[in-house]
Amino acid sequence: MQMNPFKAVGIVGLGKMGSAIATALVKKGTKVYGFDPNLKESPVSGVTLVNTLDAIGKESEVIVIAVKPNLVVSVLKEFSKPSTFVSIAAGVSYSTLSQSAPKGSFSVRVMPNLPLVSERGAMAYFCEDQVVSSVERLFYGMGTTTRITKESLMDAVTGLSGSGPAYVLTFLQALAEGGLQEGLSYEESLSLAMETIEGTLVYFRTLRKENSNLHPMEVRNWVTSPGGTTIHGLDALERGGFSTAVRDAVRRATERSKELGKG
Hints:
This protein is of the alpha/beta class.
């Protein structure tokens, strides 16, 4: 179902994620106003850079707060006009957002990830019922959105999908280096590794449409022959602690998100 984009959205902080969201919004035809005191010109074509937070508040229907966690409270307190404030800061609680924003505002806590620029983002959010439709409109066309009904799980979202692209890219590089070590050129290895990762995910997603209970390990077994190459490769992964290391990465990133929330 097509959703009409907002006419104007403000973004405070045009770093990597703020710029990614701005880029995706501009693609949808949304007017985007940006504020970032560290920039003299917008890093994203189509974004109008303004000099004050008041200008952001005056022109925007929704305001995305994309600054470092330790700056969120001070930024919100600079606004005088109530609005819908969407924070993407890790660890900053919903209650902190609500207490810091102007009276009468709506607050939203969101954890997006960078693939949203390519319309393949994984976004989870926590908010009041009244603004669910606004959040869905804001991120429509950027990927998958999931509403989290228990705020404490937002830290796990941060550890999994928020930080997840870095884990995947690390795995990608390791695969490419493995091919390089065995004699392939780096470009050959990287190309094969990228297509292998993407192709496998597309294939598994297609299978899940037919059987929503299908487990990844079941499909893995299809390509794991007795005494074959794959089982030897999997054995090396497990001896190296691969699965445990990935789970630990999610756990540690989750813990860090909680630590950031404590200031």
